[in-house]
Amino acid sequence: MKNKTDHKNPPASVISEGTERARPILHQHAHEIQPYGKIAKLPIALDQQACATSVELLNQILADTITLRDLYKKHHWQVAGHTFYQLHLLFDKHFDEQSELVDAIAERIQLLGGISIAMAPDVAETTFIPRPPRGREEAPVQISRMLEAHEIILKEARTVAKQAADAGDDGTNDLLVSQVIRTNELQVWFLAEHLVDVPLVRADIAKAVASGS
Ligand SMILES: [Fe+2]
Q1: What sign for the dihedral angle of Cα 102, 104, 109, 110?
Q2: What's residue 113's pLDDT?
């Protein structure tokens, strides 16, 4: 007669019997299929040297864009003061828009046959944007920090856009002009206006008289 307990708790080999083909193959390792810095050319009718140059320059802009994106999230979480609510929302909106740029730049690098920088340590080693402190900063300091980061990216993007156009890489030029430059310029406007020192409620007559207006 069959033991009731054995039937309820069959051995592991019985439970897994017949599932060999359905089991995931874990802990796999192999050599990389493409080393970083090398180009695996795709048939996009673009010179390999032009692809390699764009990939290298775009990776710098990518590292800086990832850093600025993360600055926005840091400041979204840590902002303080009477403008908390609007800045909290604005910083997150800009974070989302920067995330879209990160994806567009990274995918441009891949379709050029290159490899996108992706992980935080590689971004930290590459970016030109100064590292912020771990602690919280006042809103004007947060905004100043991000304005400086935007300007670093805008400067790079304008230079690389021109180089890409000269090399015949119109796609990279278009990405930089239509998306990277325009998005960053608009975000600069929304940030910079928060640093204009105007009265909140009562007009400053003394200053108006002094300036002759
Ligand atoms: Fe949030």
Answers
A1: positive
A2: 98
